[in-house]
Amino acid sequence: MSKTKLIAPSLLSADFLHLEDEIEAVIDAGCDMLHLDIMDGHFVPNLTFGPFIVEQIKKVSKVPLDVHLMIEEPDLWIERYIEAGADYLGVHFEADVHLNRTLSRIKELKAKPCVVINPSTGPESLEYVLDIVDMVLVMSVNPGFGGQKFIESSIRKIEWLSQFREKSGLDYLIEVDGGVNLDNIGRLSKAGANVFVAGSAIFSTDDYKKTIAEMKERI
Ligand code: DX5
Ligand code: ZN
User: Fold this and answer.
1) With pLDDT > 70 as the criterion, what percentage of the chain qualifies?
2) Which residues, 6 or more positions from 127, have their beta carbon under 8 angstroms from its beta carbon?
């Protein structure tokens, strides 16, 4: 089991009128990465922001950027997001017919490829790309919105990915995103997850430092 354990606040739940303050606050509070949700209004029924905002965030972030693309035809956009400063770049299995090519291209462009699966997709679909990626993201809610309820079957997927990693000798990180909170984070860690994305569970609290410290105690 990989010992890496990282907390990645999802800025989707941050106060966008004070984004720079929010970023500084979660970094001061001890987060390890910032998770940025890019939505196009087609792949998911919501819209957020594009590479221009990622570029601005990069200027003020002292931690790596984990960019989660929830967009159709992600292959047309990867260069722009890497130029903007994405360290990890996540592409949905369901959005890309030529996943091998897209993930390899992300690597060529010197970013870290991450492959993402929706709640309805099984992890075994990823078997033939797991040797290319630095991270696998298991969506534990249907993507599009913060504050949704955690889907339990995600635990089994994390266990499968963790067992496959052991068997194959690969070293990708396993990330989980959606409905992650203080009550389930310990179980997710035990199942083999390494990177914990949390939006509402961090930004809805008054004391980010206390919340992140409590999360870290449980993983
Ligand atoms: C959902 C996004 C998540 C979202 C998580 O489509 O990918 O990153 O912000 O929010 P919470 O932690 O509130 O479920
Ligand atoms: Zn996300």
Assistant:
1) 100
2) 164
